[in-house]
Amino acid sequence: MWDRVRVTENVSTWVNLPDVAERFGVPITKVHQWRKEGSLLAVRRDGVLRVPAELVANDTVLKHLPGVLTLLRDAGYNDEEALRWLYTADDTLPGTPAQALGGDLAREVKRRAQALAF
Q: What is the number of structural domains in the chain?
């Protein structure tokens, strides 16, 4: 079994859903809708749904995140497992897949997520 603590250490900052709504200037119901639709990853930490801050660092959700989450769910991953995959260090990427999503390697991360289903 994977170590939740180790993965959590790779997430530098967490943002709760009301703060995500405020950051994007949308109602909280819209953030919950994004989560239900699979466009946003949120997991419970200390009883509160939270999002890794770097996934919502801009004025929108990272461009490739919804596609990667769809691919991971298609491969059978739940939100906790998707979080683990996104935040497990990978020597062939600069850090973790989540960090690579914000840069030039986003398509490579998507390709790797797609390969998990096979």
A: 1
**Contact (Cβ atoms closer than 8 angstroms) between residue 86 and residue 97:** yes
pTM here? Answer: 0.84
CA distance 106 to 64: 7
Do the Cβ atoms of 65 and 40 come closer than 8 Å? yes
- Give the Cβ contact number of residue 113 at 10 Å: 24
What is the average per-residue pLDDT within 26-35?
95
**Residues near 112 by beta carbon (within 8 Å), at least 6 away in sequence:** 97
**Phi (first) and psi of residue 51, to 5 degrees:** -120, 135
